[in-house]
Amino acid sequence: MIEPTTLLMFFSTSILLALSPGPDNLFVMTQAAQQGRTAGLLVTAGLCTGLLAHTAAVTFGLAALFAASAAAFTLLKLTGAAYLLYLAVQAFRAGTDTGPLSSVDHLRPVVLYRRGIIMNITNPKVSIFFLAFLPQFADPSKGHLSLQLMQLGGVFIIATLIIFGAISILAGVFGERFRQSSSAQKILNRAAAAIFTGLALKLVLAQR
Fold first, then answer.
1. Rounded to whole angstroms, how far apart are CA atoms 52 and 101?
2. Which residue has the higher pLDDT, 109 or 175?
3. Is pLDDT above 70 for 116?
4. Whole-angstrom distance, CA of residue 70 vs CA of residue 206
């Protein structure tokens, strides 16, 4: 198994990576600000479920397909971009009911959870990142390599839950104040639409 000092180093690095600006934490922040901290936490849970899939992909070699196949990489990233554009349209057309809860807050938990999964899984760069990152902390002489990769993936998910959970709470508090005003809420919805559109464009332009 992986030595504790190596795990601690990996966990510290994962915390820093989760803190660095990126599509996933920006997505969580936007959803929490627009719909509340519970929504952000549900999206975070979905994103971490997606990370489980990416961990499995690295463990069983599927990530290598996206690194080697331009067609597979392009298909997946275009799917993700299309979904983000769909969310941008939904945010742009969202209601502006004032008060602690707005019309967008009535999204079912399963919908928010699913958003996180789709957002994460349809980004092939996550699998490629895991393919490059996780093996650096694994040592075949310390045991079964697949088990080590799964362990590292689990530690990365814990770090993501901690940081993204904190982002959800802070953004939720910030967004709640905006939802007290219909004009401010309209601005927040338009900002969310712009962010989703920007994320979609970034994903379309992503290279292997």
1. 32
2. 109
3. yes
4. 12
Res 208: pLDDT:
61
Concatenate the DSSP letters of all residues of 54-82 into one string: HHHHHHTTTHHHHHH-HHHHHHHHHHHHH
**2 lies in a domain?**
no
Judged against a pLDDT cut of 50, whether residue 133 lies above it is answered with yes
Domain span including residue 170: 44-204
Domain presence at residue 166: yes
Residue among 203, 208, 166 nearest 88 (CA):
203
Number of domain units in the chain: 1
SS3 category, 206: coil
Report CA-CA distances (Å) from 7 to 2, 28, 143. Answer: 7, 26, 14
Residue 159 forms part of a structural domain: yes
Identify whether 54 is part of a domain: yes
Instruction: Record the pTM.
Output: 0.78
**Token reading at 80:** 């993700």
Compute the mean pLDDT over every residue in the chain, rounded to the nearest whole number: 82
